[in-house]
Amino acid sequence: MKRDQKTYLPGLARRDSSAALNRESWKVFQIMAEFVEGFKRLNDIHPAVSIFGSARSARDSHYYRLTEEIARKLSDSGFAVVSGGGPGIMEAANRGAQAGKSASVGLNIELPHEKGGNPYQTISLNFKYFFARKVMFVKYAAAYVVLPGGFGTLDELAEILTLIQTGKTAPIPVVLVGSEFWGGLIDWLRDGMLAAGTIGEPDLDLFQLVDDADAAVNAIFDYYEGADFDTVIGEQGITLDI
Q1: Would you say residue 39 lies in a domain?
Q2: What range does the domain containing 69 cover?
Q3: What is the distance of C-alpha 238 from the center of its chain?
Q4: Is the pLDDT of residue 10 over 80?
Q5: Which CATH number fits the domain that encloses residue 106?
Q6: Which pLDDT score is estimated for 220?
Q7: With the C-alpha atoms ordered 186, 181, 75, 119, is the resulting torsion angle positive or negative?
Q8: CB within 8 A of 18, min separation 6: which ones?
Q9: How far apart are CA 52 and CA 124, in angstroms?
Q10: Rounded CA gap, 212 and 62, in Å?
Q11: Is 187 a residue whose pLDDT tops 60?
């Protein structure tokens, strides 16, 4: 029997297309507001480093303490530190940064397992939309430091590498911290993706792997040795096209 084009699937409510379009159109203004607020509040934080990692890391864990140390060293060296504003590694990043000399930035988003932002933020923004928040992680960063994490951390890492690989953002340091945690992924990138031809040999040079705070900080400073950060950030802003 030919299906009537006006027949809806069982349980699927009819939609008022006009009302739905109006609702979706108004979301554009909400999205614009998040971008405008982010650009306004973060315009003067450079140079900055975005730090990613698990919300589930306990305060007495090795990686929490290591993140706090990295963030403190970066902050005392003149880098603002940007995190997702939540608990775990994000809290450690903000905590270390706040104890240092530079800004501690939290890009907060409400999630079921993350109730409110951590209390160590000197600049705090709240987002409804993941994609607007992700732009703020990228736009002002002179480097990325990626600690062990879950799907969200993998998502952020993959996006960063994709943006650099495709030239949508300037090449900047991507520092993975924790060879025990990241080693298996790196082996798979080499033995799986590279072997299959889905990435190229140079793509494995888009990131560095370290295990301690000094190595993480030095990787960033070595990359920019002799560079003018105002020039770097200016080029980043011009290049960013996402």
Answers
A1: no
A2: 47-239
A3: 19
A4: no
A5: 3.40.50.450
A6: 96
A7: positive
A8: none
A9: 16
A10: 11
A11: yes
> HEC states along the chain?
CCCCCCCCCCCCCCCCHHHHHHHHHHHHHHHHHHHHHHHHHHCCCCCEEEEECCCCCCCCCHHHHHHHHHHHHHHHCCCEEEECCCCCHHHHHHHHHHHCCCCEEEEEECECCECCCCCCCCEEEEECCHHHHHHHHHHCEEEEEECCCCHHHHHHHHHHHHHHHCCCCCCCCEEEECHHHHHHHHHHHHHHHHHHCCCCHHHHHCCEEECCHHHHHHHHHHHCCCCCHHHHHHHHHHHCCC
* Among the ranges given (38-47, 53-62, 98-107, 232-241), the one the predictor scored with the smallest mean pLDDT: 232-241
**Mean pLDDT in residue range 76-93:** 97
Residue with tokens 């809806």: 8
User: What per-residue confidence (pLDDT) applies to 200?
Assistant: 97
Distance CA 119, CA 57 (A): 16
Query: Is 11 a domain residue?
Result: no
**Position 8 in a domain:** no
Considering its fold, how many domains does the chain have in total? 1
Please state the rounded mean pLDDT for residues 186-209.
Answer: 98
pLDDT band at 18 (very low <50, low <70, confident <90, very high): confident
18 within domain boundaries = no
Share of the chain above pLDDT 70, in %: 85
